[in-house]
Design brief:
Structural class of chain A: alpha+beta
Largest sheet of chain A: 5 strands, antiparallel
Number of helices of chain A: 19
Oligomer: heterodimer
Structural class of chain B: mainly beta
Number of strands of chain A: 31
Radius of gyration of chain B: 27 Å
Strand content of chain A: 25-35%
Chain lengths: 724, 694
């Protein structure tokens, strides 16, 4: 969980920050110590944990520092450039910048870049790059021009990728942006054109970049307030060619586009970015940390005194100019650990920061918790990154599909959906499926005649849907429409596929399954997997009769003390047998009811809904369940034949549920009386079976005891041993 | 192979003493264990955890603390107020020195090994300097003067040195003191919370302390807490409540990255220093694994580099390997529970079918029963006569019996304690038995480590703890000292095992480390020395007729050495060339007894605690592919296969734990078992709280 900690101000001295703020904050070779270069003449070395300066150096009056001081990690010296061309190198012991090493260069320096583990690089304003050592060997060497006229370097960053220094810089010319990637060791310079996409007139306000094995992920904050990502390959396919890069939207409406103040963006780690800027045009500036993976605001902090729109991030500290002073906000993103989850780790949460719930609610558009939510912009759609070598203005297949859904005929839609499904594993597969189903359902609602059943079936079978998984809660609609249309086939499919159907819907399905007429069932094509052909057995009626007695485990119903029921039973033994051995419902209905039996439920939520089912349907269902129970008891393993049959536990649970929910109704019904008697006898026989089992267990335990005694031979015995 | 009538004896009512302290020596990879009866045992963990030495106990010597110092020197201290040093070569007590502080509850050697610290009943902490042959009192640390503990002195129950040797921590009742070693004054006194599950108990006893090099003190106490203290500030840093009963012991690994505590509930907890999050450098102590290998109090724990060692009232010594520290699958990788001593406590008179059982303070003589019935494999035969308890011989004095023996003819019994040697003459008149002590033992026969009678019961061989071997002639009711084999000059190593040839000509004697010496009894001179082997001898015997000496070592190797030829036999060489079956080598208890069949010269009978085996030298040796142990009788159909797979090792695992097995005559065996359940039944019920101090 990312968190911003209590801020603190670094300088007691007010920095002479110009309108553009500071020149830069750079790491020194000691952790915790940072070089701050103001836009005037001074470089200050701060120790952050002590919140105090360790050293301060200034150039002479009249000179001006043009490039922020950096630390040469290999030597521990500091390097700064003043007046564009004059390079100064000094260390902690030096007092006066005037008296330290000086080298005058032949070209103007844009920036000196230094990272741990390699020598600093000097980037000239014309785009040329030199190693510091090579440059110092011959300061007056000729510096070539790399970029064209009127092209200006906007931003640069230096990485070490697999020990190879890689330099990236962004230039701008007439509103066009170019990225240059310089592999310093191999001296390969690759130029890319950054394509801005739809809104050509947006201006990029801030850049940041992170690097993984193959790509530099360049993130840019545009004037429209969105963060875009561009992936730049480190090893270009063809360095000679001028290539184009497409940016993809990463995060929408992070800051207000037309803010007065500057905005800044810094990547914190792979998943988090820090954004400095005003969330709304009028509001105060904020520092916010976003999780790009989940597109959530992790934390944010108001900076009422305004900033210079600059943000630096080193180690665990975010640096910014808040008002007139340099402010440090420690940032922590702790890896989730078991200790943390168990509450062994303390999360220090100070009242200054506003922590937003980190649970992503898919159903509602992600609110930012700070009240700067933009109603129009609220639906952020995650798009995956794409790199295209050359831009083709092509509508993606998903978009095409969506437009088809809105207009075309059912047939055509079906073809399109099938086509799309054939492609299958595109990265945005899930999203598109979701969108498609939403689209279809919306159209269903709008046009009562429109019901693309086959499409929906296909989409459900992709296994990516669930009852309420998608952002717009689309699947409730799906089942709602299916219920309305009494599409038992689709409902069966939903029951089988969705893990999260509410009990009320399950019950509604049950109602339909029980009430739908046999003739209309005949037309449907339900999945019969779970149903075994029960009719086969009903042929052998007589055989079954015997088996019903076997099922009672030697407990003969005739000997039962329950005289009344016996009498009644004796009256119609024929009927009873028939009733219990032939399936009371047609096979298709049985298949549907099995789907209900398989579905997950919670008793408390299911019971109230079961009360709504008409009494004759309850009896029918009970009869079916009783029949299943008898079938179960026919074999020793107590299972039903078939591929995916209901289990005995499911059957028993549902019998109990139905009786619990409708007991008074069922008791009052004359036609259910016999069923109840049967069930009663069933329970009674079960109880007697268990009591017999208990008796057996006791005897068995005695046997075991005897056996133990046999093994326990006492203190002395003479035995015969034969060794083989 | 053979059919035997087996006298299956379960009336050996032996109960090992509970374990009081263990001390692990990293240098020699040995573990010293002291028991509640004062016995101290030395286990060689490198030699397959063999109990290679022991010092017999003493009624008045309750050992409360045990430690190694100066490398290989072993000290103990106990409630008689004495500090003792053990002579690991001669196997006796070098000296005992009164610390003059009342009963001693704790002891710790300084990290350098040159100083010894004891904590006494009167609350004093005394520092002793270890000199090359003794210890010397140096000074007392400042006594704690506290009104609260005035009445009962504030005995020091636990001590621990800071690894730098500059400070010590001392656990007492209700508080922990930190002393500066140089000045001897207390730097901090940390009061331990008496609260126990919200209820204030009368006292909180600090059973153990451990001082880490970063200044952390870990304490364990009677309220079930493991607490971490900062010794610099004297403050409590962290507290873990781990048990409803006392936490009685703690031991820290040398690297200080893990420690182990034992509780009165029989549970052992492992604590490890692990990073707070997956890749942070900040570490914290986390309770990682609980182990429940004990039923009773875990009185003591030790931490070897690869295992957690624990022992307690339930008499088991448990080695729980830390799998992450064990690199190869060998003895160290297996959980090990040692309950029985690795020496024979039983001797047998074949002629009269008598068994002599040795207990700590008495001997029991039993006569085996008989039967006239016959039966097939596995049958229990009806007894025509039950076994008789003939004699109960109590020792005089507080010392434990070291060893005992009954002569093959059954008319002599000899036993020895540390200071006295006893020889008794038995007379049998029908069912009556009379016992007469042979008085006037010579002065040199004061203490024996091993006693053995010759096959014809005319000679008595005694291994004394000075390293000498005495031969005594027995005739009628008298005895005559024949000869003493003196140890080679310069060595004082005690002989622990003896074997005599049935013809009485050869005597083999083995010490703990050097090779086996074979003496010619007729000529009274050293005949030869069997080449020394890396692992200690666990049992040996000389075969009749051939005079082959069979030696079993703790690494489960068995050698056969021809005494007349002074070389290993061909069979032994073949075995060594081919190697033993891997399952044979993986057994974890040593062979404790070897015997021979008088009519079948090719057979060697041997046993450990879990199996009895007859090795038939005429059959091929098993290789790793063949089944070593086959409990099923062959059926007629598979006779061919059986002959093809028949191998030299005939194993029976019916009798266990097997403490003794011997051949009484050609067709009769005697097996003495001691079921663990019977031992547990005789232990006190699991005690949750110690009586003392509560």
């Amino acid at each position: 969980m990312a968190a911003l900690e209590e801020e603190f101000t670094l300088s007691s001295v007010v920095l002479s920050a110009g309108p553009e703020g500071l020149l830069g904050v750079e790491q020194s070779d000691k952790t915790d110590q940072f070089l701050v270069t103001d836009s005037g003449r001074t470089v200050i070395l701060y120790k952050v944990s002590d919140q105090k300066p360790l050293g301060s150096w200034s150039v002479k009056q009249g000179q001006i520092i043009t490039c922020p001081a950096v630390c040469n990690f290999q030597t521990g010296e500091y390097v700064v450039v003043h007046d564009n061309k004059v390079l100064r190198i000094w260390n902690n012991e030096d007092v006066n910048l005037d008296k330290v090493f000086k080298a005058t260069l032949s070209a103007e320096v844009y920036r000196i870049l230094s990272v741990q583990g390699t020598e600093p690089l000097v980037l000239f304003k014309e785009g040329a790059v030199r190693g510091l050592e090579a440059l110092l060997a011959d300061p007056q060497q000729k510096i070539e021009t790399v970029i064209s006229d009127e092209e200006v370097i906007k931003w640069t960053k230096f990485f070490v990728v697999f020990r190879h220094p890689v330099l990236i810089f962004i230039t701008e010319k007439h509103g066009n942006y170019f990225a240059y990637v310089q592999m310093f060791n191999s001296r390969i310079l690759t130029k890319y054109t950054l394509l801005l996409g739809q809104d050509e007139n947006s201006v990029i306000k801030s850049f940041t970049a992170s690097v993984d094995r193959k790509f530099i992920s360049l993130m840019s904050l545009s004037s429209d307030g969105c963060i875009y990502e561009t992936l730049i390959p480190i090893r270009p396919a063809d360095p000679e060619k001028n290539q184009s890069l497409v940016k993809s939207l990463l995060l929408k409406a992070v800051v207000s586009g037309n803010a007065r103040n500057g905005v800044a963006l810094t990547a914190l780690d792979q998943d988090h970015v820090a954004v400095l800027g005003s969330p709304l045009a009028a509001s105060k500036e904020c520092l916010s940390v976003w999780n790009i993976k989940f597109q959530t605001l992790q934390t944010s902090k108001e900076l009422p005194q305004g900033t210079s729109g600059q943000l630096w991030y080193y180690g665990e500290h975010l640096f910014m100019l808040h008002g007139k002073s340099l402010t440090v906000i420690p940032y922590k993103c702790e890896v989730s650990s078991l200790a943390g989850a168990l509450g062994k780790l303390k999360h220090s949460q100070d009242p200054g920061t506003h922590v937003v719930s980190h649970f992503v609610n898919w159903e509602t558009p992600q609110g930012c918790g700070l009240g700067f939510q933009n109603s129009e912009q609220s639906r952020r759609i995650l798009r995956r990154r794409k790199i295209e070598v050359s831009l083709q203005p092509e509508v993606p297949p998903s978009k095409q599909l969506l437009s088809t859904i809105m207009k075309d005929s059912e047939k055509h839609i079906e073809v399109e959906v099938r086509k799309f499904l054939a492609l299958k594993q595109t990265p945005d597969f899930h999203t598109v499926i979701g969108d498609t189903v939403t689209g279809l359902l919306e159209r269903c609602k709008a046009e009562p005649s429109f019901y693309p059943r086959n499409c929906l079936m296909q989409l459900i079978q992709t296994h990516v849907l669930s009852y309420r998984f998608f952002c717009l809660s689309l699947c409730p609609d799906l089942m709602e429409i299916a219920l309305k249309k009494k599409d038992v086939q689709l409902l069966q499919l939903c029951l089988q596929q969705f893990p999260d159907i509410p009990e009320s819907v399950t019950c509604a399905c049950l109602k339909i399954f029980l009430s739908i007429g046999d003739d209309s069932l005949q037309e449907t094509d339900v999945n019969m997997e779970s149903v075994f052909d029960y009719s086969i057995n009903s042929v052998h009626d007589e055989k079954m009769e015997e088996q019903t007695e076997i099922l009672q485990n030697g407990f003969n119903p005739e000997e039962d003390k329950c005289n009344n029921c016996d009498q009644e039973l004796n009256k119609k033994p024929q009927d009873e047998t028939k009733e219990s051995t032939s399936c009371p419902v047609v096979q298709k209905r049985a298949a549907l009811l099995n789907a209900i039996l398989h579905s997950a439920y919670s008793e408390t939520f299911l019971l109230p809904h079961l009360k709504d089912i008409p009494a004759q349907h309850i009896t029918l269902f009970l009869k079916y369940l009783y029949f299943l129970y008898l079938k179960c008891s026919e074999n020793a393993t107590m299972t039903l034949p078939g591929i995916h049959p209901p289990t005995l536990n499911q059957i028993m649970d549902w019998i109990c549920l139905l009786l619990d929910a409708n007991f008074t109704v069922v008791v009052m019904m004359p036609e259910a009386k016999r069923l109840l008697i049967n069930l009663y006898k069933l329970v009674k026989s079960q109880i007697s079976v268990y009591s017999e089992l208990n008796k057996i267990e006791v005897s068995f335990r005695e046997l075991q005891k005897l056996n133990q005694e046999k093994n326990n031979r006492g203190l002395y015995s003479i035995e015969v041993l034969e060794l083989f | 192979m053979g059919e035997f009538k087996v006298h299956r004896v379960r009336f050996f009512n032996y109960v090992p003493s509970g374990i009081r302290c263990v001390a692990y020596n990293n240098q020699s990879n040995r573990l010293a264990v002291s028991r509640t009866d004062g016995t101290v045992e030395i286990y060689n963990l490198s030699a397959n955890y063999f109990q290679e030495k022991f010092f017999p106990g003493h009624e008045s010597r309750a050992t409360e603390a045990l430690c190694w110092a100066e490398g290989q020197r072993l000290f103990s201290a106990g409630l008689n107020g004495e500090i003792m040093e053990y002579d690991l070569q001669a196997l006796n007590i070098k000296y005992a020195m009164d610390a003059f502080g009342g009963p001693i509850w704790s002891m710790a050697a300084s990290p350098s090994g040159s100083q010894l610290l004891v904590g006494c009943e009167d609350g004093s902490v005394k520092l002793f300097q270890i000199t090359p042959d003794k210890i010397q009192f140096e000074r007392n640390f400042d006594r704690q003067k506290s009104k609260r503990h005035f009445s009962w002195g504030g005995r020091i129950l636990s001590l621990s040195w800071h690894p730098s040797g500059t400070h010590i921590a001392a656990g007492s009742i209700d508080y922990i003191s930190v002393f500066d070693v140089k000045s001897g004054s207390a730097v901090h006194k940390m009061i331990v919370d008496r609260q126990y599950m919200g209820v204030s108990k009368r006292k909180c006893i600090v059973w153990g302390v451990a001082f880490l090099s970063d200044g952390t003190i870990i304490s364990v106490d009677s309220a079930g807490k493991v607490q971490f203290w900062d010794s610099a500030t004297g403050t409590l840093v962290k507290s873990h409540l781990i048990a409803n009963a006392d936490v009685q012991s703690i031991a820290v690994a040398d690297q200080e990255d893990s420690f182990v505590v034992g509780t009165a509930e029989g549970t052992v907890f492992h604590f490890q220093l692990v990073p707070v999050t997956s890749n942070s450098s900040e570490k914290q102590w986390v309770r990682t694994k609980p182990f429940q290998h004990h039923t009773h109090d875990v009185r003591t724990v030790a931490h070897s580099p690869t295992a957690l060692i624990s022992g307690g009232t339930d008499t088991h010594l448990v080695f729980r390997p830390l799998m992450e520290k064990v690199e190869v699958k060998n003895y160290d990788a297996a959980l090990r529970k040692i309950t029985f001593p690795h020496r024979c406590l039983i001797s047998c008179s074949k002629k009269r079918q008598l068994l002599l059982f040795q207990f700590a303070h008495h001997l029991e003589l039993w006569r085996l029963g008989s039967t006239v019935a016959t039966g097939k494999n596995g049958d229990t035969l009806p007894l025509s006569k039950n076994a008789d308890h003939l004699l109960h011989l109590k020792t005089k004095g507080p010392e434990n019996i070291i060893c005992s023996c009954i002569s093959p003819c059954g008319s002599w019994i000899a036993y020895s304690t540390v200071s006295r040697f006893f020889l008794y003459r038995l007379n049998y008149e029908h069912d009556n038995i009379s016992l007469k002590r042979v008085s006037k033992m010579p002065a040199f026969l004061r203490s024996a480590l091993q006693i053995l009678f010759s096959e014809d019961s005319t000679k008595l061989f005694v291994a004394s703890n000075q390293g000498a071997l005495h031969i005594v002639q027995l005739s009628g009711g008298s005895f005559k000292h024949l000869h003493a084999f003196q140890p080679q000059s310069g060595t004082v190593e005690a002989m622990c095992l003896l074997a005599v040839s049935p013809d009485g000509n050869w005597l083999a004697a083995s010490g703990t480390s050097a090779g086996v010496h074979v003496y010619n009894v007729k000529q009274l001179k050293l005949h030869c020395t069997v080449p020394a082997y890396n692992f200690p001898v666990t049992a040996m015997a000389i075969a009749p007729n051939t005079n082959n000496l069979v030696i079993a070592h703790s690494d489960q190797q068995v050698f056969e050495y021809s005494i007349p030829d002074k070389q290993y036999t061909d069979w032994s060489r073949t075995v060594q060339k081919q190697g033993f079956h891997h399952l044979w080598l993986q057994r974890d208890t040593p062979i404790t007894h070897i015997s021979f069949h008088p009519k079948r010269p090719m057979h060697i009978l041997l046993h450990d605690a879990y199996m009895f085996c007859i090795i038939d030298k005429s059959l091929p040796l098993p290789n790793d592919k063949t089944l070593l142990y086959n409990p099923f009788p062959p059926t007629n159909e598979s006779d061919v296969i059986r002959r093809r797979t028949a191998h030299a090792f005939k194993i029976s695992k019916i009798y266990k734990p097997l403490l003794f097995m011997d051949l009484l005559d050609e067709r009769t065996l005697v097996a003495v078992e001691r079921p663990l359940d019977d031992i547990i039944a005789q232990l006190p019920p699991p005690i949750k709280k110690k009586k003392f101090g509560t």
